[in-house]
Amino acid sequence: MARKASLSGFPEWLPNERLVELHVLDTLRRTFELHGFSNVETRAVETVGQLLRKGDIDKEVYGISRLQAGESTGDDPNALALHFDLTVPFARYVVENAGHLSFPFRRYQIQKVWRGERPQDGRFREFTQADIDVVGDGTLPFKYDVELALVIAEALEALPIGDFKLRVNNRKLAEGFYLGLGLSDTAGVLRNIDKLEKIGAPRVKDLLLDEVGASSDQADAALALAQIRTEDMSFIEKVRALGVEHELLEQGLAELGEVVEMAVRRAPGRVVADLSIARGLDYYTGTVYETVLVGNEKLGSICSGGRYESLATKGNRTFPGVGLSIGVTRLVSRMLADESAVASRHVPTAVYVTLAQNDSWSDAQDVAAQLRARGISAEVAASAEKFGKQIKFADKRGIPFVWFTQEDGTHEVKDIRSGEQLVADPATWMPAAEDLTPRIAAATA
RNA sequence: GUGGGUAUAGCUCAGUCGGCAGAGCGUCUGGUUGUGGUCCAGAAGGUCGCGGGUUCAAGCCCCGUUACUCACCCCA
C-alpha cells in the first residue's frame, strides 16, 4: 500500500517501495542503453525566460529565490526556476553543446521535475521523468519516430505493469483534415478534441461550435475522425471514407501508417492508431504518443511525447527531435497502490550473521567480509541476544538466511523460510540466485 | 486559483445527549533463562491538526486557520 506523503505531492517511499522504484529505474536504464542512448543530466534550475519559451505555463513553475534577499521571481526572465520537464532543459543543453555532440544525438535523461499543480491520484508536484529523445541537426529521418515507439514499448514491456497501449496519432493528419474541412483554427480544434475521452462527444461538439466557429457538419466530421481507432492499417481507409482531401492529411496518413505498420510487426498488440490523441503542448508537429495502462485509463498517460520540427534553434540551424517521457513516479505510485509489484524483502541483506558472544563481533565480521567479497550482502548482529531474538530480527526484515558460528569454529546457515539449517563454509557458500538481492515480483493476476 | 469532504495511538478507525481518551492490528516484555513464526499473559504508546469562543464541563457545539483529500483546470 502506498503511503501518502506528509507533504502532498512530494512523495517519499518506504525502503521496500523505493526498491520497486529502483527496479523500474534500473530496467529503463538498461533498455535505453541497450538501444544506444547516452545519458545526460542537466541542472535542476533554468532561467524563467528559458522555461517559458514554449508557452504560457508560468503558473506551473516553481521559482527559486533566496529567503534572506526577499527577492521576487516576478517577471524577471533571468530569475531562476525549477524545471518542469526534461525536454526544455535538453533543448538548451543541445544548443549550448552542439559543437561537442554528434547528430543525430540520442540521449536518455532520468531526473526529478517540479510542477506547481494541485496534487491528485497519480499527480505530483515533485516527480521523476524518464525521457528519451533523438535530436538531429537540420533534419531527422522519420524512422526515428518509428524506432522510439518501439523502444518505449520494449521498456514498458519489461516492467511488471500489466497491459498498456501506446496510442499514436499524427498532427499533420489531424491538421490537414481540419484544413481540408475548411477549419483554419486547427489548434483550437485539437485542444477540444483532446477532451473527447473526458467529456464525451456531445460536449466536444458544443465546444467546437462555440469556440472555433465550426459548422455542425464540420464538427461532426472532426469528431468522426477522432473516433477512429485501429490496431492495424485500416485507419487509412476509414479516414479516406470521410471524403476529406488535403496535402498535409496525406503526409500524416503516410507517416502514421509507417509507425503502425512497423508496430504491428515488431510490437504486436502494444500500439494503436488513435486519431483522438492531440496532446496539449503545441510544439509537436508530427507524430504524437500517449500511453495508458489498460484498466487504469483514469490514471492518465504514463508516457507521452512526439515529434517537434524545431526543438531548438541556434543561429540558422534548427534541431528537430522526437522523444517520449515516462512518468516514473506516476507509474510507481500505481504499482505500489495496487500491489502489482512487491519487493521480496525490505533490505538488501541476504545473510544475517548472528553473535554467540558479544566479543565474537570481530570474528563475525570476518565471516561477513568473506561473504561480501563474493557479492553476498551480509550484516552482523550488534549484540549477542538470544538466538530467537536474532532470528526474529532477520525474519522481520525478510533476510532469507541466518548464519551461526559454533564454538568449535564450524559454521551453519539456516534458511529462515524452510527452517532448514546446514553446515556451510563462508569461503564457498552461495545462496540461490533469486535470494542474492531483493527481487521485484509481479503479482500474478 | 475554484468548489466539496476529512482531521482522535505507529496503522485502520470507534467515541452515544457535551460528563474520566477507546478497540483491532502493530510494537515491547514475559511465559519459553541461547533457534523465530502459533498460542497465552502483561505493558508502553495521545498537543483528539492548530488558534480562539460558548459552557460548571468541549474530541463532540460555534468562529477562524492549516494540512490532507476528491473534483475542475492542466499534465507524466
From TrEMBL:
Domain of life per record: Bacteria
KW Ligase (keyword) present: yes
E.C. designation(s): 6.1.1.21
Species for this entry: Zhihengliuella salsuginis
Molecular function terms, GO-annotated: ligase activity
Classification via PROSITE patterns: AA_TRNA_LIGASE_II (PS50862)
Name this polypeptide is given: Histidine--tRNA ligase
Species classification: Bacteria, Bacillati, Actinomycetota, Actinomycetes, Micrococcales
Statement: the UniProt record of this protein carries the keyword Ligase: yes
Catalytic activity reported: tRNA(His) + L-histidine + ATP = L-histidyl-tRNA(His) + AMP + diphosphate + H(+)
Family membership noted in the UniProt record: Belongs to the class-II aminoacyl-tRNA synthetase family.
Oligomer status and interactors: Homodimer.
Domain Aminoacyl-transfer RNA synthetases class-II family profile as annotated: residue spans: 24-348
InterPro entries: aa-tRNA-synth_II, aa-tRNA-synth_II/BPL/LPL, Anticodon-bd, Anticodon-bd_dom_sf, His-tRNA-ligase, HisRS-like_core, HisRS/HisZ
The protein's enzyme class: ligase
Keywords linked to the UniProt accession: Aminoacyl-tRNA synthetase, ATP-binding, Cytoplasm, Ligase, Nucleotide-binding, Protein biosynthesis
One Pfam family here: tRNA-synt_His
